[in-house]
Fold this sequence. Notes:
This protein is mainly alpha-helical.
Amino acid sequence: MARKRKPxxxxxxxxxxxxxxxxxxxxxxxxxxxYWEASATARSRGHLPRTVRxxxxxxxxxxxxxxxxxxxxxxxxxxxxxxxxxxxxxPIYDGTLSSLITCYQTDRKxxxxxxxxxxxxxxxxxxxxxxxxVGKRRVDRLTGQDLRDCFLALLEPSHxxxxxxxxxxxxxxxxxxxxxxxxxxxxxxxxCLDLAQVLERMTLRVPKDVRTAWKAKRPPKVAMSYAxxxxxxxxxxxxxxxxxxxIALGVAAQFEFTLRQIDVIGxxxxxxxxxxxxxxxxxxxxxxxxPGLRFEQVADGTLxxxxxxxxxxxxxxxxxxxxxxxxxxxxxxxxxxxxxxVDDDGVPLRRRNYQDLYRDVANAAGVPRTVWNxxxxxxxxxxxxxxxxDLVDIGKHAQHSDLNTTNRHYIVPSVExxxxxxxxxxxxxxxxxxK
Length: 435
């Protein structure tokens, strides 16, 4: 039962007000202040606004009637919000960055839901870092200086003698925070648009000494060579088990077709109860396998694939890639059905298991630990570049929508590249001198 309001006295007379939620607070220096306040139930469930400051003249009948109307409107809006199950189930934004992160990750209309699971994992890591750093801060009270302080703090090494965390700081503050604030601005959440505009106008540069230290300690990006890919394939086939043959097939597919790991081995995802599973779905321990390559896709000698990252298509003549054909032909005919990369029981390998098996086979094949599985794709692109293949063809082969991506991230500089340039320059000089 609602607590009875104390009578309102105006000029010595008691005034009856039909104004649900009204609170009158006496201030020593400013008289009586008027507030509308949401119920305790609504406040506990995250209703906004929690309070509204009011300014009406209680000494006039018109002012009192306007005050009553405003309080009834605010109360009816609150009751409608409480009675709407959909709003009740929506994530609650309480003004903090932590609640904004929760909204972004759990709101079914959030752009987060349309991301590939592999991308979501990266975003989750960055969100956890931001939450630890400034999660308890209110978005509408954060300033550009606060963001700069956060950026500089994240640059610090995670342990004594470690490398500065340049990529983490840039990803969290420049990329992830911008995504979160843009999402909040879309919903009109308090403080998000203003802070997003501040961040957009900021210059966040890594101090020169920090960048130098980071480059000195950064592990080298070592593209896998054909000799290394061949050694891994042969070692996997030598071991002879189904799971080791899968490592041989996976590495061969990544290197020869320049595919991402996820497009080869697929990925296990949590089952979404609101989405119907296809009849041929592979389910295990409450998760469903999002398909990678299947033997049926290469059965006729061609591979037509659309990548998971940017939905770029590519078509390969499988028979033109001898390393992959060598791994494929080692698989017994009875096993050439379903997922390409599986464990001994025929169930698709999980990402962590695949990476651990790769490392075990690569170690036995004499491949350095600096050559990660993900660098098989880099190695294939680098080999294509060193062979003199056309850059446009290389970009299409690697399913890139932008040639700058091919040049900047996948083609590793080599001495052969500079030698070709040197030979061309010398030939040009000789041609000019001969005139």
